[in-house]
Amino acid sequence: MGGGGSSTRRVTFEADENENITVVKGVRLSDSVIDRMKEPSSPSTRSQHRSASGAVNDEELKKRIAEELALERARRDSEAQKRRLFGRLLERERISSNEHLTRAILRERAATEEERQKAQRFAKQLEEKDRELKKHDAYYKEQLARLEERSAQFYKVTTEQYQKAADEVSSRFK
């Protein structure tokens, strides 16, 4: 909305007993318009302006007021637009940070799940190694028992043969 555009809104005003202008319909005026309206002018000059060109001054005043109202409205619209844009920016930032946080949480969950799966694989491998070690342990114990049994049998046979040979030698040399 431009500051120099014309307004389709009608503004009514009237002069009070001191010939000060008063806005009737609750229209806000900027400080500069109010200051211009309060500018000191002698009553005789004001009367001459009114009598000579009363309609022109009223029209000029109406035009000034309309311009000031348009400027004020444009300023308010600009402020409102800035607030809306800032609000949108904040909303985008919030959404972006939420998305970033969500992605980070998902990455952490994925990493945690991957670590859990690794731990399960390692636990299975450890159990498998443990079973394999127990299997080897049982096998070697069995082999050791066989060797001990063979050794005992060999010892028994050797002892019997030794005893038999000793008895033969002793019977020959008696």
Q: What does this protein structure show overall?
A:
Residues 42-52 have low confidence and may be disordered. This protein has helices spanning 31-37, 43-172; strands at 13-15, 21-23. It is built from 2 helices and 2 strands, in the order E-E-H-H. With 174 residues, the protein is mainly alpha-helical. It has a two-stranded antiparallel sheet with strand order 1-2. A hairpin with a 5-residue loop joins strand 1 (13-15) and strand 2. InterPro entries: MIC19/MIC25, MICOS_subunit_Mic19. It holds the Pfam family MIC19_MIC25. Residues 29-59 are annotated as: Disordered.
Indicate the radius of gyration in whole angstroms: 56 Å
**Residue share in β-strands:** under 5%
Q: What integer is the average pLDDT?
A: 82
Low-confidence stretches: 42-52
Largest sheet: 2 strands, antiparallel
SSE topology string = EEHH
Q: How many DSSP-defined strands? A: 2
Counting helices, strands and paired strands, the structural category is mainly alpha
What's the total helix number? 2
Helicity range: over 70%
Principal-axis shape: rod-shaped
Strand order of the largest sheet: 1-2
The end-to-end distance, rounded to whole angstroms, is: 145 Å
